[in-house]
Amino acid sequence: MMIHLVVRQLCAFLLALTSYQSVQAANNNFAAKPIRSGDTLIGILAKNGFTGREREVVLSSHAGLRQLFLTLDTKYLVRRDAGETELRVFDSQTAAAFRILKKGGKVSAFPYIPNYKITLERIDGRIHGSILGSILAKIDSNFVASRFTDAYAFDIRSARDLKRGANYWFTVQKKYESGHFIKYGEIMQTSLEIDGRDVRKRFVKNPDGGVFFNSDDLLEKRPLYAPVNYLKIASTFQPNRLHPITGRRQPHLGVDFELPKGEPVLAARKGVVVRYGNNHAAGNYIVLLHSNGMETAYDHLYKIDKKIRQGLKVNAGEKIAEVGCTGYCTRAHLHFAVKTKGRMVDPLNYIKAYPYHMEEQLEARVAKN
Ligand SMILES: [Zn+2]
Fold first, then answer.
1. Ligand 1 mean position to 345 CA, how many Å?
2. pLDDT in tens, 252-273
3. Which CATH architecture is the domain 209-369 placed in?
4. Could you write out the DSSP letters of every residue in 3-60?
5. Alpha carbon of 141 to ligand 1 centroid (Å)
6. Which of 164, 166, 257, 307 could link 193 by a cystine bridge, Cβ 3.0 to 4.6 Å?
7. 115-206, what's its fold?
8. Cα–Cα nearest to 323, from 261, 255, 268, 280
């Protein structure tokens, strides 16, 4: 009896607390729902009571909704008040977000800018097996795990560099909207024990992204600069692999940097345009020849800059095109390849960890410390 009474009082108290909060946060009664395996925007709309016709109206109201990229480590928000349903959906890769409303039999959808509250979480651990697997065991996000490996893409060129049980830690942004966790943001600082040495990186922003940086990166005598402002590696140089579309064994003789369509593509070094155009596999492409005899190739471009023509001289870091998904391509990225002495080589052994225009900024930063 006594216990029942206490429970009942507690319930009444909690109820009062809840309704008090909902008054305080008026119009803010969102619940966060996980993205589940196989979820598409259509599926999410259906789950939340949108009819086939309403789903069509939503999808046709903004082109960005059809390209919305949803991953399992993100959430969406749902609010239901007196005959009104609102969904807020967030693209995993880009800043794109949409509000979808259903009220009195009318539906609408429009982009909006979320007012994220950002916190930093620190994760500590040890490497057992692969880096990716070790981090996924601590934090269930492919994005975060692959960003950590991106930070060390230039440092770890073989599994031998990493000892079993190597210590690591990193800090990662967590983005909240209306009090709910929505998605992870950028990794800001990293530390990893490589060959018994604590190698730390820091994410340094630039206007179109940012790079993981360590002052040792400035000392690297590499002949090329990064061809993009954000180095998220979707696929590495692999002399043997199955092509994702044709299924045939086809070597991947470059590195794929994943970026949203339209992001600038930068010349990796001063050079001259030797070829450009369009073909079946590469889509829109440009090939530059540099004074040291190296050739760099840029594939799947959305737009080739109008100035580009055969024989045109370009400077290091000059914008030559925009990232796209032309040719054999499933998601927007830059396929970047390097040829030297007639041989295709792994670009990550030849490019610096940052684009040309960041060099001064990074030098100034190191000089200050
Ligand atoms: Zn590629």
1. 13
2. 999 999 999 999 999 999 999 9
3. Distorted Sandwich (2.70)
4. HHHHHHHHHHHHHHHHHHHHHHTTT---EEEE--TT--HHHHHHHTT--HHHHHHHHH
5. 23
6. 166
7. Nuclear Transport Factor 2; Chain: A, (3.10.450)
8. 261
- Written in H, E and C, the secondary structure of 170-219 is EEEEEEEECCEEEEEEEEEEEEEEECCEEEEEEEEEECCEEEEECHHHHH
Instruction: Tell how far the Cα of 177 is from the centroid of ligand 1, in angstroms.
Output: 35
Give the pLDDT confidence of 40-51 residue by residue, as tens digits.
999 999 999 999
Banded model confidence at residue 158, pLDDT cuts 50, 70, 90: low
- By residue count, the chain amounts to 369
Task: Write out pLDDT tens, residues 99-124.
Answer: 999 998 899 999 999 999 999 999 99
Question: Percentage of residues in the chain with pLDDT exceeding 90?
Answer: 75
SS3 365: helix
* CA 256 / ligand 1 centre spacing (Å): 5
Q: In this structure, are strands 271-279 and 313-314 parallel, antiparallel, or unpaired?
A: antiparallel
- The answer to whether 308 and 276 are in contact (CB under 8 A) is yes
- As a whole number of angstroms, the distance between CA 44 and CA 42 comes to 5
Q: State yes or no: pLDDT of 201 exceeds 90.
A: yes
